[in-house]
Amino acid sequence: MYYAKEALRISQEINDQKSIVNSYLSLSNLNLDLGNFKKALKTLFRAQGIADSLNYKELLGKIYNNLGNAYRGMENIESSEKFYSRAIDLYETVGNELELGKTYNNIALIYVRQERFDEAIANYHKSLNIVVKFKDKSAEANGWSNLGVAHYYKGEIEKTIFYFKKSLLLEEEINNVMGVAISYSNIGELYFETKKFDAAIESLLLSIEIAKEVNAQDLLKHTYKVLSMSYAKIQKFEQAYKYNNLFMNIKDSINNLETSKYSMELESKFVSSEKEKKILELEKQQVVNELEITGKKYTQNVLIAGVVIILLLLLVFYTRYRSSKKSKEILQIYSSEIEQKNNEITESIEYAKRIQQAILPSKKELKEYLPNSFVFYKPKDIVAGDFYWIEKVGENILFAVADCTGHGVPGAMVSVVCHNVLNRVIRDFKLLDPGKILDKTRELVVEQLNKSESIEANNIGGIKDGMDIALCVFNPKTKELNYAGANNPVWILKKNANEIEEVKANKQAIGKLDNPMPYVTHNIKLNEEDSVFIFSDGYADQFGGEKGKKFKSKPFKKLLSSMQNDSMGIQFEKIENHFELWKGDLEQVDDVCVIGIRI
After folding, report:
1. Secondary structure (H, E, C), 99-132
2. Do 581 and 591 lie in a common domain?
3. Are residues 299 and 331 in the same domain?
4. What range defines the domain where residue 355 resides?
5. Radius of gyration over alpha carbons of the chain, in Å?
6. Pick from 81, 256, 400, 512: CA 20 to 30 A from residue 277's CA?
7. Structural domain contains residue 119
8. Residues 569 and 486 in one domain
9. Residues 443 and 530 in one domain
10. CATH number at residue 189
11. pLDDT at position 549, please?
């Protein structure tokens, strides 16, 4: 971790963008290994921002794969699958077969979690085809084992044993002793499940013999237990008792080891340097040696050692106190200045909030143009990247919900640009077709966000910011709704219907794209008492509930459908209350904006 951080620092000093991304990847790998998934996500999103702006496709693939790993570790299976799929698309584009093989294996793990076993098996085979081509025996052995697990969950035990044996042969070929021991243990357990107890015992004994060579305590513990049960099944109770005792002994031994390791960790927290550690160890050794002489001397030395340890601790605490006192004095010098700067920043952001609120439609406009409606708008920070927009042109009411890149101050800055561009498209170009409005908006947003000469000078290649949006043009007389969307759909709830109808958006944002396609306008005929909903992704993406998981689109649809007989005012209250109850004590993850309209 130290060296990865040093690599990042040096890369940033010399402004080597590629090295910065690689350093972030190294940090993410370490955090993934340590189980620090949120820290891994933080570094990966930083890496993604750079790699995306500089079009580093190879590195983006690795970033997406690691994002998939991080979300898998957090049990966020939906996001994990999304990023693995992105990595696969990129690797297929650039032709990186080796990384593609690894990612096929990773996404298959997700499919197993989702009980999509046939898809998992298909992807394991894709992965294996590649690793076999590259003669990566270790990855191949792992692949056959994983494939066996997928067949196991399908209830196909014989196939599982077959693939585990293929894995075993490879582990033996590459002399992976631990892998061989694990394979024999797994095969033995499968034989136990299929009531082939003699075969189970043979395989488990082989596993134990090898596991002892490498002192694999956890594996021995598990294998002893299964072996004991296997002997019990064939009524060889003496052997069953023997291996059950071994299981219990090793279980206690592992527990004692963990306790010992924990106490050593506690002890080390009170020692501030290697020199002090050595002194402490010498004193301990002295105590141990003196124990062999007399009880009196033993007691004396224990007391001496205790005094020395206490003195050392006092020295450490005194040093820390001096350091802390000095730090406090420095902090006192700068605290007033820091507080002043902090107040200035907060005041500036509060002022930015007033500016942003000024560009949003007023309550009077909302009631005038959309009398039977509600807007639930909840920024994550003081200012937001989400905004809603309403205009009246002739008989037509134009309304939209937009989600700009980011949130907070950066998101708010992009939202002001996008809001102004929408107004310009309507007033200067007189467009009313939603698809054409979005086409023109994209053109002008890209132009606005890529004006800076310094961007070209720095060879960054232009800003990748932009927005997702759902844009509707409604004629109250004809009750016709024309809609176009950039990643954000429109939901229609017909009167007395049980389910919401979704009109899908174009899968491309308003921003700089390599091969932009025209946005499609959808025409929808509405009737009285029908409802229309447009929104950003913040509501569905909020983590909460008992398990701290995302709310997701399907439950959001059910929530809206359940309220169709309520007034729009009551719907607003229910949506707001449900969001707060779902979120609970967790942090709000994104800006939220939902507009509901009843015809």
Report:
1. HHHHHHHHHHHHHHHCCCHHHHHHHHHHHHHHHH
2. yes
3. yes
4. 270-359
5. 32
6. 256
7. no
8. yes
9. yes
10. 1.25.40.10
11. 87
DSSP secondary structure of 467-504:
EEEEEEEEETTTTEEEEEEEB--EEEE-TT-SS-EEEP
Tokens representing residue 413 in the block: 């800055």
Residue 109 domain flag? no
Q: Which of 373, 370, 594 is nearest to 489 (CA)?
A: 594
pLDDT band at 106 (very low <50, low <70, confident <90, very high): very high
Tokens of 430: 């007189």
Which has the closest alpha carbon to 595: 402, 397, 401?
401
Tell me, yes or no, whether 485 and 508 share the same domain. yes
Place of tokens 């720095």: 458
Grouping H, G, I as helix, E, B as strand and the rest as coil, residue 460 is coil
Q: Within the chain, what is the greatest distance between any pair of CA atoms?
A: 105
pLDDT digits (tens, 9 = 90+) for 244-302: 999 888 877 666 554 444 434 333 333 333 434 444 444 444 434 444 444 444 445 54
Whether the predicted pLDDT of 202 surpasses 90:
yes
Are 305 and 265 spatial neighbours (Cβ–Cβ below 8 Å)? Answer: no
Residue matched to tokens 């004006």: 451
The residue type of 65 is N
Q: Is 466 helix (H, G, I), strand (E, B) or coil?
A: strand
User: What's the angle, vertex CA 191, arms to CA 188 and CA 194, rounded to 5?
Assistant: 155
What single string gives the DSSP state of each residue in 347-362? HHHHHHHHHHHHHSPP
Q: Which of 359, 374, 401 is the last residue of a domain?
A: 359
CATH of the domain at 376: 3.60.40.10
* Per-residue 3-state assignment (H helix, E strand, C coil) for 208-221: HHHHHHCCCHHHHH
Q: Which two tokens stand for residue 568?
A: 């729009």
pLDDT at residue 362, as a whole number: 80
* Single residue among 252, 268, 284 that ends a domain in this structure: 268
Q: What is the pLDDT of residues 465-498, one digit of tens each?
A: 678 999 999 999 999 999 999 999 999 999 888 8
The rounded Cα 364 to chain-centroid distance in angstroms is 41
Q: What burial class does residue 53 get, using C-beta atoms within 10 Å of its C-beta: 0-12 exposed, 13-18 middle, 19+ buried? A: middle
CA distance 220 to 182: 10
* Number of folded domains that form the chain: 3
Residue 304, in any domain of the structure: yes
Q: Nearest to residue 504, comparing CAs of 480, 522, 524, 529? A: 522
Closest Cα to residue 315, out of 273, 375, 268, 370?
A: 273
Six-digit token string for 247: 């299981």
Provide CB contacts within 8 A for 495, sequence distance 6+.
Answer: 527, 528, 529, 530, 564
Pairing mode of beta strands 522-525, 549-550: unpaired
* pLDDT tens-digit series, residues 525-579: 999 999 999 999 999 999 988 788 899 999 999 999 988 888 888 888 889 888 8
Regarding whether 365 and 262 lie in a shared domain, the answer is: no
Which residues lie below 8 Å from residue 9, measured CB to CB, with a gap of 6+?
none
Statement to judge: residues 470 and 538 lie in one domain: yes
Same domain for 337 and 315, yes or no, is yes
User: How many angstroms separate the CA atoms of 493 and 47, rounded?
Assistant: 41
